[in-house]
Amino acid sequence: MAFNGNINGASAAIGTAAPAAGTLAADHKFYNRVFLENKYTDIMPAVYGKYTAVDKHRGKTAVWNRLDKATAKTTTTTEGVVEASKKRTLTRVEVTLDQYSDNYEFSDLQLDHGVEGVFTETSEHSAKAAQLTENLVVYTALQGGTNVRYGAGVATRLLTNTAMTTTDLDYAISALRTAHATKISEIAKGSQNHDTTPINAAYVCIVHEDQKNGVEGLTGFNQIDKYAASGVNMLPGEFGSYKEVRFVADTDIPYFAGEGAGAKDVYAAVMMGKDTFGVP
């Protein structure tokens, strides 16, 4: 918690002893309370998952069920013949819930005479920290998946030596199509405005802010200001699109420092469809 200001004419931090009295008379002492404002992301990857309520007093296990995919029938029906019944295949997904908590310490002196606004700001700070924690948990789980495409199609992260290309994106788009992944965003129709682009229903790809310039330079990338319906139903952090993918940039998505070829940093973008993962 940072505190920036003057107490009796001298700088001080919350929790330290009060500085020596200034030159003003005791009855004219004042506080200049200016908190350093931290920028917190408004991007919450959990909103792209499928929420499932976990009732109180029902244990710490969340459960999702996934049915097998539909397939086309390849034989014709014969009059008077009853088709053999089929059984559905159900995959049960279970996860044990983990809990994260933190606390902030204040002395009785601070509680009785603390700088006005410290406790309100600390409450807001705690809420933001909870959001960042949830984001980290979700990103870590998504980046730990097995459906992975390393840059240029290399076999492992240790061999990764190139930035994301349109070939990598096309591969991921094809994989999502093959898996019948549902697209997240609705279609943005074209308009009569000059130099605008209609945006199809799309998957979402979250990248690190450091990747943003590279993505914007890809052939076929559409800047967000080129959208025909710019400002309408934009995703938090969205900055553009490529074919069937809309891109979101987030500073807090983890990356793998020094784990690529030649000790390069490896950035792990996450591309997904609707209800790709569960959120208890």
Descriptive notes:
- The chain is 18% helix and 19% strand.
- It contains four helices and 13 strands.
- The two termini are 30 Å apart.
- Residues 1-36 have low confidence and may be disordered.
Structure described in brief:
By secondary structure, the protein is of the alpha+beta class.
Biggest sheet strand order reads 7-8-9-6-12
Query: What string, H for helix and E for strand, traces the elements in order?
Result: EEEEEHHHEHEEEEEEE
- Describe the oligomeric state of these chains in a short phrase: single chain
End-to-end separation: 30 Å
Mean pLDDT across every amino acid position: 79
What overall geometry do the principal axes of the alpha carbons give? globular
Number of helices: 4
Helix content: 10-25%
Structural class: alpha+beta
| Strand segment tally | 13
Protein traits:
single chain, 280 residues, alpha+beta, five-stranded mixed beta sheet, two-stranded antiparallel ribbon, 13 strands, 19% strand, globular
In terms of topology, how is this protein built?
Blueprint: E1 4-7, E2 31-34, E3 50-51, E4 61-67, E5 90-96, H1 108-113, H2 118-143, H3 166-178, E6 203-208, H4 212-216, E7 221-223, E8 238-242, E9 245-250, E10 255-256, E11 266-267, E12 270-272, E13 278-279
Parallel strand pairs: 3-13, 6-9
Antiparallel strand pairs: 1-2, 4-5, 6-12, 7-8, 8-9, 10-11
